[in-house]
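Re: that backbone. Tokens:
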């Protein structure tokens, strides 16, 4: 019998056709019924899904080997030293218990657990509550399906969909997600619109491969000079947008001036920028549009000559 660990020789088994069905089932019913305790025990031991029994307070009473592997534990006795809250955020656990007590069960509830070694795992939790009529104790019987691999793949695919493949910056799809979020009236933000000076001319003279190199270097320059949580978006062509979270008007002005000053020395090419910060409860998109209009004004009024900083200084001076 595949997977049972037991092999019955053909000579030991009567031909079913020669034995009444009731007599055959009664004599050879082992592992054929979920009512058989040993069958249930073998299922629990051999499944790759984690099976568990816990109390309302989070005490882990019993679990199968797959559960131990998910949590990075080698022996069941080690679980006696821990409770569910040692692996799952306490607030998340509290909400889950409240849901089970209200509904009696839950199905495919996504949880993030933190193993003892610090590794994060994502699981789907399905369980039900049962109460002992004699003692009044309520326990949870459940099963965990480890979907960490799938979630990591989903994260990679999402990340790829919102990233510019050339520069590694975010793209307009990510910006659309920012626009779609709900914000409070008190939320503040700013943005800086950056445009490489005369990039088309540079491409025409030096070729698109050299232009791509400039774009990659420019993106690294911008990411290096803003905080990690501040996204740099490639808007298309030679335009970039820096998103400034929790930023006032004065802070946005300071950051833009700092980038301009540092850019004179460290940027791979000359660039122009326009900035804006939220005013009058405007939307994120409205703030971005104001920064874009500011950039347009800078292009018209104070843009340098038609060559980038990669051009020899004397050529740039002669072209101004």
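Recovered sequence:
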């Amino acid at each position: 019998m595949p997977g049972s660990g037991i092999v019955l020789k053909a000579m030991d088994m009567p031909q079913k056709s020669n034995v009444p069905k009731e007599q055959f089932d009664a004599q050879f019913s082992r592992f054929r019924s979920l009512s058989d305790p040993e069958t249930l025990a073998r299922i629990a031991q051999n499944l790759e899904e984690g099976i568990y029994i816990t109390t309302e307070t989070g005490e882990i009473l019993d679990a199968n080997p797959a559960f131990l592997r998910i949590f990075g534990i080698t022996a069941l006795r080690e679980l006696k030293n821990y409770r569910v809250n040692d692996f799952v955020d306490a607030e998340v656990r509290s909400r889950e218990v409240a849901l089970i007590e209200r509904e009696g069960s839950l199905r495919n509830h996504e949880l993030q657990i933190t193993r003892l070694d610090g590794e994060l795992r994502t699981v789907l939790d399905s369980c039900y509550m049962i109460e002992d009529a004699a003692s009044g104790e309520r326990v949870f019987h459940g099963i965990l399906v480890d979907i960490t691999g799938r979630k990591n793949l989903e994260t990679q695919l999402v990340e790829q969909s919102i990233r510019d493949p050339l520069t590694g910056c975010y793209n307009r799809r990510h910006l659309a997600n920012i626009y779609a979020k709900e914000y409070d009236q008190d939320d503040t933000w700013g943005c800086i619109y950056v445009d490489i000076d005369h990039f088309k001319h540079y491409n025409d003279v030096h070729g698109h491969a050299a232009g791509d190199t400039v774009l990659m270097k420019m993106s690294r320059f911008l990411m290096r000079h803003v905080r990690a949580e501040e996204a740099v978006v490639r808007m298309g062509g030679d335009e970039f947008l820096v998103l400034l979270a929790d930023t006032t008007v004065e802070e946005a002005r300071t950051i833009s001036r700092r980038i301009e000053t540092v850019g004179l020395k460290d940027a791979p090419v000359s660039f122009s920028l326009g900035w804006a910060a939220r005013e009058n409860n405007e939307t994120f998109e409205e703030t971005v549009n104001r920064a874009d209009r500011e950039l347009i004004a800078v292009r018209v009024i104070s843009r340098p000559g038609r060559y980038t900083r990669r051009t020899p200084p004397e050529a740039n001076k002669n072209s101004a």
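The first strand starts at residue 50 and ends at 55. The domain at 162-319 is CATH 3.30.70.270 (Alpha-Beta Plaits).
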